[in-house]
Design a protein that fits this description.
The complex is a heterodimer of chains A (114) and B (116). Chain A is mainly β. Chain A is 0% helix and 53% strand. In chain A, the strands form two sheets. In chain A, strands 2, 4, 5, 6, 9, 10 and 11 form a seven-stranded mixed beta sheet that branches. A four-stranded antiparallel beta sheet of chain A has the order 1-3-8-7, with no helix packed on it. The termini of chain A are far apart. In chain B, the strands form three sheets. In chain B, strands 2, 5, 6, 10, 11 and 12 form a six-stranded mixed beta sheet that branches. The mean pLDDT of chain B is 94. Classes of the chains: A mainly beta (114), B mainly beta (116).
Chain lengths: 114, 116
């Protein structure tokens, strides 16, 4: 079974702090994604990566950056956390073989910025 | 641009009854995939069912089936014999391929309550 893990389930940070959210998958998937989930807005794509050291902006990249130094790990960085970044963050991965059809999700990190 | 719309923020169903969740989408692509994902409370999002756009036959997975109307751009999920464990947020999602990049778009979700 594919396993996608995220470093924290719950995180509380202060405004202006630098925040790292980590995601690890164990199935050698090429593609990895970061979404934020907000009530009434569904899932919105922040960034995705289709290979090591490769990244593409999603729909809402402002205020975020990412890092993918190893295939299994995809990090989301909030350079200077703000209260409007309080949200649920979901990581997902997908294999390229077969057309990257299905995504596998992590459990999510609920981030609160105070 | 592609869009996915779920017009029902919340639905309720009696245990053992049938419920249908609605989803409409918009795209100019001819080759794409549609999905229903389930997110139980405080648990991981999992795939419920998927439909390839080129297949006319509606997908079925046990108690879950879809009504895929390609011309109408409609993709509804039917849950038969509803169980308490079906209570969750359900997301309709689209996967296309544009300009050399896979594109995933999610709807805003429908919260399903199952009444005992």
């Amino acid at each position: 079974d594919v396993k996608v893990t995220q470093s924290s389930r719950y995180l509380v940070k202060r405004t202006g702090e630098k925040v790292f959210l980590e995601c690890v998958q164990d199935m050698d998937h090429e593609n990895m994604f970061w979404y934020r989930q907000d009530p009434g807005l569904g899932l919105r794509l922040i960034y995705f990566s289709y290979d090591v050291k490769m990244k593409e902006k999603g729909d809402i990249p402002e205020g975020y950056s990412v890092s993918r130094e190893k295939k299994e790990r995809f990090s989301l960085i909030l350079e200077s956390a703000s209260t409007n970044q309080t949200s649920m963050y979901l990581c997902a991965s997908s294999p390229t073989s077969g057309g990257a059809i299905r995504q596998y999700f992590g459990p999510g990190t609920r981030l609160t910025v105070t | 641009a592609q869009t996915v719309t779920q017009s029902q923020p919340e639905m309720s169903v009696q245990e053992a009854e049938t419920v249908t969740l609605s989803c409409t989408y918009d795209t100019s692509e001819s080759d794409y995939y549609l999905f229903w994902y389930k997110q139980p409370p405080s648990r991981q999002m999992i795939l419920v069912i998927r439909q390839e756009a080129y297949k006319q036959q509606n997908a079925t997975e046990n108690r879950f089936s879809v009504n895929f109307q390609k011309a109408a751009k409609s993709f509804s999920l039917k849950i038969s014999d509803s169980q308490l464990g079906d209570a969750a947020m359900y997301f309709c999602a689209y996967r296309g391929y544009t300009s050399g990049t896979y594109k995933y778009i999610f709807g805003t979700g429908t919260r399903l309550k199952v009444l005992a």
